[in-house]
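Postdoc handover notes: sequence design on the structure in folder B. Input tokens:
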């Protein structure tokens, strides 16, 4: 799994890919936890106490590089649907600890 592919984690935390039933476990460290890939966000008040969010440009995402998969948040991935090299953790299938925090995911979503 993921042989011959370079995984670049553009989130602010390590991503743990784990499939214990297959003996697979891989930790992908954050490339730069202080500068993750993000989507520009502007909050606008539409009436007193009610707001809307407008999403803009993606930043911190490099140009495609053959053989490289960029791991980003689901929001960043959804903002660049034309990019076939951009994936996010399969969070809906995550293993969580007793506090509900994600411990690992079985794979990536495109």
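Designed sequence:
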């Amino acid at each position: 799994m993921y042989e011959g592919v370079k995984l670049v984690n553009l989130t602010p935390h390590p991503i743990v890919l784990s499939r214990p039933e297959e003996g697979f476990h891989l930790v992908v460290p954050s490339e730069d936890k202080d500068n993750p890939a993000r989507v520009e966000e502007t909050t606008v008040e539409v009436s007193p106490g009610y707001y809307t969010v407008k999403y803009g440009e993606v930043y911190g995402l490099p140009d495609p590089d053959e053989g490289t998969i960029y791991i980003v948040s689901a929001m960043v991935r959804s903002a660049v649907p034309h990019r076939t090299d951009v994936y996010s953790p399969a969070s809906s299938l995550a293993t969580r600890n007793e506090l509900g925090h994600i411990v690992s995911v079985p794979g990536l979503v495109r």
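Context for whoever picks this up: The two ends are 15 Å apart (CA to CA). Don't rerun without checking with the PI first.
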